[in-house]
Structure formats: structure tokens, C-alpha cells
Amino acid sequence: MYFYENKRYSFDIMNKLPAFFFFFLLLSSLTTCSQKLTDTAAIYHYSGRVERQDQNKALLIGSASSVSFAFTGTQCAINLKSVDSYEHHNYVSLELDGHYIGRLKVDAGAAKSYPIEVSTKAKTHKLTVYKATEAANGSVLFEGTTASLTTQKHITKKKIEFIGNSITCGMGNDTKEVPCDTGVWYDQHNAYWAYGPIVSRSLNADYVLSSVSGIGMYRNWNDEHEKEAIMPDVYENLYLNKDTSKPYNFEFQPDLVSICLGTNDLSDGDGKKPRLPFNEEKYVANYIDFIKTVYQHAPKTRIVLLTSPMVSGTRNSTLVRCLKKVQEAFQSDTLHQPIALFEYQPMEPKGCGYHPDIEDHKLMAAQLEATFKTLLNEK
Fold first, then answer.
1. What is the DSSP letter of 16?
2. Deepest in the core among 90, 119, 127, 169, taking most CB within 10 A?
3. Model-level pTM?
4. What is the greatest pairwise CA distance in the chain?
5. pLDDT (tens digit, 9 = 90+) per residue, 274-313?
């Protein structure tokens, strides 16, 4: 009886083989598809404000947003395109095997292949492509690489978000290829060498830059919040502009949020357009509300307020007084860690348009390092 039942069971399977075999193929197909998706995620690592297009394409939007990948051999080229409402160039900065290898101009027009020189004989290499320009300059579309890709491990690190204006973007800091007062206004941008990325690399931390040149907390460099958006208007939008149709997902949960805004609020603008006196009450009120917005998206973060290396004298005294009022507004807040305040030492910036150059940014990062290390370790 036992033998007969087994024979019958075998016969039933043979009769149902087409359906069983189809199910097996379907399961195998789904498994293969899953493996491909997993492998792709392991191959390309994106950081910063980025919009994914598909498995091999992505728009680098914000300053220092990046894509990295590992590859074998010495042959490598990357496909890039500058994307905006009108045709113009952009810039990316390149880091190969942990070493900066230069800034690359991404020409206007159709996507192009840009060869990467690999001189070392290591079996495996890692290339990271950083957007050197900012969100206001349009995006850089990454369309993949010709390199022989391999998987890479992404190590979990502490995370820092830098919110700020042109200083945080790295505007006017790199004059190696294009001298000041020549070219277009963003030809000297290099976010890779801004103080935020520099101090993050020193502390072995991941980072995001949420920064826009000329922007302020309640008004901008040459606008009384009449025509232009201020940081509280754009922060929650992926492209750091007025477009609310593409919200930022805030998947990056920073351990520390650094806010450096006030330079433009305190400025006189271009000296031609009418400018109202600095409104201390409005600046402080907007700053307090903005911090509440940050806490909504990153409830466990620690916040540090920065003064500006481009503000000195009585204006710096005013800025410090305002930032201390912001601190005081959260003294009774038991849900979050105390808000810190960091004051920069006076600086005579040597970059374009009275902005810090790369060496100035290194000094700024060096000033921040000990404080940021302490704040991160307290998390």
C-alpha cells in the first residue's frame, strides 16, 4: 500500500508538471529580478539632494550631491549632461580612491563621455562624482559609466547636514581654471572644497548640503522677500526652489544640523536697490520657526548655529545677539538636545566677490572640527 501511494503521488506530479514547472520559472524570474535590483543598489551609491531616474541614471541637484561606484581595471569613463531650462555648462569634482583629482566642466548640450585617468595598479578603484555647482545652476545628469563595475560596501557613519548660503555652497572659492571677475558667476564654484565637506571628511562623516547662494532667513542679499524665496520657503523642496511638486524625502537623518544663515539678511544688497534696516525681530522669529521645521523632519538631531566669517564689527555683534535669542527660545525644550552656538574667528576672505577661497574654507573647517566632533560624540 505504501509503495502504491508513492507511485500514485509520482504520477500526479508528472500530470501537473507544466503548471509546477511554470511556477518554478516564475519564482526563479522574480528571484533574478530581485538580485539585479539589489546588485544595482550595491553598485551605485547616491548622496545628497539627488533625483533617481532609473537604475543607471540620476540627477545630481544640490551642492556636493554625489554618486560613487567601485570598478576593476584601469578603463573608466562617465557619461554626464548639464540639465536646465536653458543650455549651459556645469561642474563636477572627482575623487578617485579617496584622492581629489580635479574639477571637470560638464559642457552644454547632449550627454558626453568623460574619460577618467586611472594611474594606480590597484585591482579595485572607487570613483565619486560630486556636483561642484549648486541647485540654482540646474542639475548634472549622471548616465552611467563604461567601467567594469563591482559591488561596494557602504559603511554607516555619523551624518551632518549643512544649511546655508553661498559660503556653504563653496561659491567663489576655486580660481584655478577661471580667475575672479571672468566667466559666469558660478565658474569658481567648488562645493567639494567648501567648509562642510572638508570638516565632514576630516571627521569621517556623511553629509548633505542644503544651501543656496544669496539666500537668507527672512530676506535675501538683494531682495526684501518680495520676489525671491527665502530658506524657509525652499528647504522642504528637493530642488531648493519654489517647486513644491517635488518634495525632499528627508531620508538622510542627520546626527548634527549646522545652520549658517544671516550674512544676506544683514547685508546692504547691491547698494542701488532700496534696502530696509535689518529687522532683528523678524530674523529671530523666522529662525525659531525654521528650527521647528528642521525638528519635524529630523526629531533626533542636534543643532548648531554658526556665525558668519563674512560678517564683522557691529553687524557680527548683532548676529551673535540674535542667535543667542534663538537659543534662549528653546531653553525649556525637553524633547531635543540643547542648541549649540559657534562663533567664527574674524576672516579677510580671499575668494571671489568677498567669499572665502579654498584655503579660507580649510581654516573654517579647522575651527569647526573640535566642536563638531564633541557634538557628534554626545549623540
1. T
2. 169
3. 0.89
4. 103
5. 999 999 999 999 999 999 999 999 999 999 999 999 999 9
Residue 250 region by backbone torsions, left for phi larger than 0, else alpha for psi between -120 and 50, else beta? left
**94 exposure class (CB count in 10 Å sphere: 0-12, 13-18, 19+):** buried
Q: Residue 268: what residue type?
A: D
Q: Which residues contact 221 (CB under 8 A, 6 or more apart)?
A: 214, 215, 264, 267, 269
* pLDDT tens by residue, 40-72: 557 999 999 999 998 789 999 999 999 999 999
Q: Which residue has 543598489 as its cell numbers?
A: 41
Residue with cell 534696502: 275
Look up residue 239 and give its DSSP letter: T
Least confident of 40-54, 71-85, 312-326, 330-344: 40-54
Q: How far apart are CA 84 and CA 134, in angstroms?
A: 12
Distance (Å, whole) CA 175 – CA 167: 15
Q: CA-based Rg of the chain, rounded to a whole angstrom?
A: 25
CA distance 375 to 378: 5
Which residue is associated with the grid cell 570613483?
127
Task: Retrieve residue 96's grid coordinates.
Answer: 578617485
**CA 164/CA 171 separation, integer angstroms:** 12
Strands (E), 186-233: 206-211
* Set of cell numbers at residue 149: 563595475
